[in-house]
Design brief:
single chain, alpha/beta, 2 domains, 15 strands, Ser_HO-MeTrfase, cytoplasm, pyridoxal phosphate
Length: about 425
């Protein structure tokens, strides 16, 4: 059952309580490979459900617009201090509600509507908020988009020659590096040199890899990027929230953009949970966890390659694997749905230069943060790759019985691996 228990919710609203319990069981019984998801610790989970959710705290510590901040101010200051210490930054703002508003705050701080901004194109692995056409960032700014290399030894990796050429030609106010489907190490020094040469502010969006950076399993953008944007979940294993970090030079602009520029009162219960997650991420145990995420991803990538899967860029350096299923004779969406039935949760995803539409793309995206939290190790990755292979073949044949058989095997394996937020009933 859900842990901590939810007796008051069950009494007040059994419909919602039943769905929460069902979701907890679903998370326990699935190999969760969605690259942007994880399991929070019991402490983080408890913090999100505290009476801090009752409080309004517009403003910043010591400069609030509501009274009664005697306990809230220290909570936010703890979160800020822990973020600064963990990532080695001069300034941190822990108030953004999520990653997209955090990135919009960066635009508000450094650009005016119509200015030129630059980011990786969404189909190449970038994020909606890096200037894609359907996002406010693409509608309000002149968005210039860079790609990945199409072939050669660096195929699937950011085309830094193109980045430099575009930056020098277009002179953007902002350059975003990072994204949502990038399986390789981000070359922060190279991006920093391009930004310096073109006169742009460099923004590193490390939402996916923040936990790896904190744990020393991925290079840090600190010292290269003027601003760092991140969510606080994914590999960082915190609640659904976000942070902006920067040099002291940009602190005031960032803070004014977040409040009052884009939002009102912060979610104090989330701030507390962020503080807890940051404390957990400062431990040696978390560092070992971050490196284990990468080890699991590399082992899973190798096992998929051995089974004939086409991986974008040929593998991974972090937690994320992007698979082009064209050679398997099945598209990303039916494959993802079949895998979900088979007890393996991931998402369909475009791949670079994808000829298919974004809502029916050629690929799937997977990551190893959540299964690493459960305690799975590289030795188990070939078994997961086998199940993925079998499920993809079953999807091509529409063989539901085979998918149900895989799901039973998945449940049997995962029964031995505890999940934060779930307790087996006797």
């Amino acid at each position: 059952m859900h842990q901590p228990a939810i007796p008051h919710l069950a009494l007040a609203d059994p419909d919602i309580a039943g769905l929460v319990e069902a979701e907890a069981r679903r998370q326990f019984e699935k190999v969760r490979l969605i690259a942007s998801e994880n399991y929070v610790s019991p402490a983080v989970l408890e913090a999100t459900g505290t009476v801090l959710t009752n409080k309004y705290s517009e403003g910043y510590p010591g400069r609030r617009y509501y009274e009664g901040q005697q306990n809230v101010d220290p909570v936010e200051l703890l979160a800020v201090d822990r973020a600064k210490a963990l990532f080695g930054v001069e300034h941190a703002n822990v108030q953004p509600y999520s990653g997209a508003p955090a990135n919009l705050a960066v635009y508000l701080a450094f650009a005016q509507p119509g200015d030129t901004i630059m980011g990786m194109a969404l189909p190449m692995g970038g994020h909606l908020t890096h200037g894609w056409s359907v996002s406010a960032s693409g509608k309000w700014f002149n968005a210039v988009r860079y790609s990945v290399r199409a072939d050669g030894p660096d195929a699937g990796r950011a085309d830094l020659d193109e980045v430099r050429e575009l930056a020098l030609k277009e002179r953007p106010k902002l350059i975003f590096c990072g994204g949502t489907a990038i399986p390789r190490t981000i070359d922060f020094p190279a991006f920093a040199e391009i930004a310096r040469e073109s006169g742009a502010v460099l923004v590193a969006d490390v939402a996916h890899i923040a936990g790896l950076i904190a744990g020393g399993a991925h290079p840090s953008p600190v010292g290269y990027a003027d601003v760092i944007s991140t969510t606080t979940h994914k590999t960082l294993r915190g609640p659904r929230g976000a942070m902006l970090m920067s040099t002291a030079e940009h602190a005031t602009a960032i803070d004014k953009a977040v409040f009052p520029g884009l939002q009102g009162g912060p979610h104090d219960h989330t701030t507390a949970a962020i503080a807890v997650a940051l404390r957990e991420a400062s431990t040696s145990e978390f560092s070992a966890y971050a490196h284990q995420i990468v080890a699991n991803a590399k082992a899973l990538a190798e096992a998929l390659l051995e089974r004939g899967f086409d991986l974008v860029s040929g593998g991974t350096d972090n937690h994320l694997i992007l698979v082009d299923l064209t050679g398997k004779g099945v598209a990303g969406k039916p494959a993802a749905r079949a895998l979900d039935r088979a007890g393996i949760e991931l998402n369909y995803n475009t791949v670079p230069f994808d000829p298919r539409k974004p809502f029916d793309p050629s690929g799937v995206r997977l990551g190893t943060a959540a299964i690493t939290t459960r305690g799975l190790t590289p030795e188990l990755m070939p078994r997961i790759a086998d199940w993925i292979d079998q499920a993809v073949q079953a999807a091509a044949k529409e063989d539901d019985a085979a998918l149900d058989g895989i799901a039973a095997q998945v449940r049997e394996l995962l029964a031995a691996y505890p999940m934060p937020g779930w307790a087996q009933t006797p």
